[in-house]
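Re: your question from the hallway

Yes, I did run it. Sequences:
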Amino acid sequence: AQSVTQPDIHITVSEGASLELRCNYSYGATPYLFWYVQSPGQGLQLLLKYFSGDTLVQGIKGFEAEFKRSQSSFNLRKPSVHWSDAAEYFCAVGAREKAAGNKLTFGGGTRVLVKP
Amino acid sequence: DTAVSQTPKYLVTQMGNDKSIKCEQNLGHDTMYWYKQDSKKFLKIMFSYNNKELIINETVPNRFSPKSPDKAHLNLHINSLELGDSAVYFCASSPLRTGEGGELFFGEGSRLTVL
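Structure:
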């Protein structure tokens, strides 16, 4: 079974500074990988996804993530944070086996606070 | 048009009651899900349906019963509500079939509070 760890529960960053959110996964093969963002009181919005190919993927809102097989990681980055980026961020893993039923397993989330 | 819509958005009820949450998607997707998000924001899958057929049923008490009248709807009925059922319940849908991977499209959630 797959699992996801987001080591940082909270991160505080100044507006305009860079942001990196860590995600490590456990899975026997190359999984499908996702980053979602959840603003307060809202549902989850997909930022980006990795299925195959180029290990550096670009997403919406200026985010990017890099899949590193050797480290079982899929870290999310943004060069310059805006106040509107304050939210909860979730990394998720999807298995490739049909028996898994296309379910996504989520990490515990990282709450990002942006200082003016 | 809201792609995945859930009703109600907020639900406050007493222990022991029975309640339902409805979900509809207008994306034409074949697969729908229910996820539970607890007070610590942890998201866990409960059920998944593919074209009205149950394909994932995680370890969920049998007080929870999903019903899919058609592939655009997946409702969640909860009997004999307990305090621990208080959470935000998210409905989601996916365009791909079992095992093909693919992103999930989430509704805005239904916050259930059991008193």
